[in-house]
Fold this protein.
Amino acid sequence: EPEVTQTPSHQVTQMGQEVILRCVPISNHLYFYWYRQILGQKVEFLVSFYNNEISEKSEIFDDQFSVERPDGSNFTLKIRSTKLEDSAMYFCASSILFPQGSYEQYFGPGTRLTVT
Amino acid sequence: ILNVEQSPQSLHVQEGDSTNFTCSFPSSNFYALHWYRWETAKSPEALFVMTLNGDEKKKGRISATLNTKEGYSYLYIKGSQPEDSATYLCASNAGNMLTFGGGTRLMVKP
């Protein structure tokens, strides 16, 4: 069964460093998302991406964050200058069609980012 | 901003018990309600997506109902098994983002 994959599973970085989290969505999906979960808190939406541009973003997704689909398969989240409060589990998801309605978002296993 | 709440936060049951938990969400601007099953170190697994008031969906021993007018959904597990132990997340979407509840952590004792 097709699945969303994410690498690495765990990333440790120092405050101020740039990190890139990588995702390979399901191959025929057209919509891509990033979510995060800070330990003990709810899963939060960051950004959605369609047709090579951001379609929606949350207040969390400030200028320190960017997303890119550099080739036909990868979808990346970059954090330019990490802060301690960026430590979280980051989930990538994809869906086949626009999610208004009944289209499922399929999630990857997450990347745990630890900023020290 | 949607506010999605789940209760209880955690639940311990014996193998064979049936159980249920609740997801509440704002009924305005509603598009769909999603249930996910999430085991540690694995991907959240989509269980159900429901859109219509009165919807009932079933997958094996797990079923869910939806009331969009009052803004709640119930997830039922019949005859719980240890392998049902996981966190069950609900999420509502308005637009193309999902807003999640805090999850219900279910532990089934053999």
Summary: The radius of gyration of chain B is 13 Å.
